[in-house]
Design a protein that fits this description.
The chain has 16 helices and 13 strands. Helix 14 links the parallel strand 12 and strand 13.
Amino acid sequence: MTKLTRARQFLNDRFGYTDFRPRQAHVIEATLADRDVLAVLPTGYGKSVCFQIPAALRDGTTLVVSPLVSLIEDQVKGARRRGLTAFGWTQGASKPEVDRALRAAARGELDLLYVSPERLGQGSARARLRETRVSGIAVDEAHCVSQWGHEFRPSYLEVGGARRALGMPPVLALTATATAQTRREIERLLEIRSPVRVLAPADRPNLFWRVEGASRLEEAYVRIKDELLGRAGAAVVYAPTRELSARLAIALSRRGFSAAAYHAGLPLARRSKTQAAFLSGKLRVVCATTAFGMGIDHPSVRLVAHLGVPPSMEAYVQEAGRAGRDGAAATCLLVSVAGRRGRRLPDTTLRARARRAAMLGYVDTRECRRAAIAAYFDEPPPRCAGCDNCD
């Protein structure tokens, strides 16, 4: 039985699917062959499957570098439900729990060990990891290596050094969006060698893209409320600040929607409760900052709205792409509020300024929005399946 046949059998037995989604098999086959892999697969392609199944089938432990505690907790729970042994080395883990997990990893009895880049950057953590059997490294949301590493999470720039310290195990870098420049930076910073590149188009035909303007915040709230009234299903509304996410949640709750705020300033227990309520269907709308959404497996999100203009096309397409994971029709709405198109950035952040300019170009364009997204990610223009400028 070939490795890929075993992987397909595992998929059927543990995940309940008869075959892989497009491009999943290519990623898994290369990973099981211990190749370095860069995979750019839009939301809904099942990127976690691409490292969870190889982790279960090969000897040793797969080290998963993940950006958010909520994402780690969610993926650990999901992996355990499917019979994999998994542990999240987060701040919430006690020393006895960490010790037990690392001893299991040293014996080759732990499939998945999740860490943040900050944890991986600690010398003491690296020393303990060298005592385990790390068979591979999966860098989830790998665009963070390029984007966040340069801007506000420098620990991402040290992941390549941590890989060297662990003896250069094969690496799988996964993300939903990446320009050619971002892909080159990911490969350079992670020290990826002769990679297998699996690149899927950013365009998702089931999503409808629309931009609306508002002269003030109250008008923007009304536009989002009207969009919610016009459709069923769950919704995520992104706001640029914690204050605005809270204000929006209050405004929508007063209009009769089950809505709650989610941002990094809230206690972890409250964030976990909000996320659980959203995933279970008890909460319809989450009003969030960028702290919410990565890896959230909610298939029936029918609307992702943005209050204000995101800082980059990468951030926008990542967040908006959390709509319609089930393949059914969904809407991506951006409400541009007058006077809130973003603060001026100092000359030292030329990278951020260029990304901001591209995002504003998307907002202002009168041409096909799908074509604008494709052009940004260096892809040929798709036939428009739905945007406000073409419809």
